[in-house]
Design goal:
This is Endosome-associated-trafficking regulator 1. By secondary structure, the protein is mainly α. The protein contains 2 helices and no strands. The relative contact order is 0.09.
Length: 154
């Protein structure tokens, strides 16, 4: 009986040690699980913050693109007006040549109109380039948002 008791006590001790070992493992796994949850929550918050930042940038770029489009439209309109003014100046110039009166004034007016036209044309080109740049930026942001969606799914 004593021998059997000793054997049983030995088994109980081994089982207690095994139980404590498993409890330690369980605590470690629970701790690791909690750490992983915290890490995932932080990553989700970081991702959400990044998405919000990208959305804000997209809104800013959209506003810039709209301003650039408006500016380009105004410059096109001004360009058309100046071209009409240039045509009128040329017609006036031709009429003055035919009459041989005020030729120098007409030439000067035509030259001034031409200079204005060239300035507006240069300005229009710059605005159109800016508009194209804004459109490319918007496309980049859209591609980035697609990538973010794919990352979120993964």
């Amino acid at each position: 009986l004593k021998e059997e008791n000793a054997i049983l006590r030995s088994k109980i001790n081994k089982l207690q040690i095994l139980s404590e070992t498993q409890a330690d493992k369980m605590r470690k796994l629970e701790k690791k699980l909690e750490e992983n949850k915290i890490k995932e929550e932080k990553e989700a918050q970081d991702l959400e913050a990044m998405v919000q930042h990208v959305e804000q940038n997209l809104q800013l770029m959209t506003k810039r693109a709209a301003k650039a489009e408006n500016s380009a439209a105004k410059l096109r309109q001004e360009n058309a007006q100046l071209q009409a003014e240039l045509r009128n100046s040329r017609l006036e110039n031709e009429a003055l040549r035919a009459g041989q009166a005020g030729l120098a004034v007409a030439k000067q007016n035509a030259e001034v109109a031409l200079q204005h036209l060239l300035q507006v044309t240069t300005s229009s080109r710059a605005s159109i380039r800016q508009l194209l740049s804004g459109a490319e930026s918007l496309q980049l942001v859209a591609d980035l948002l697609k990538s973010i969606d794919r990352i979120a799914e993964v």
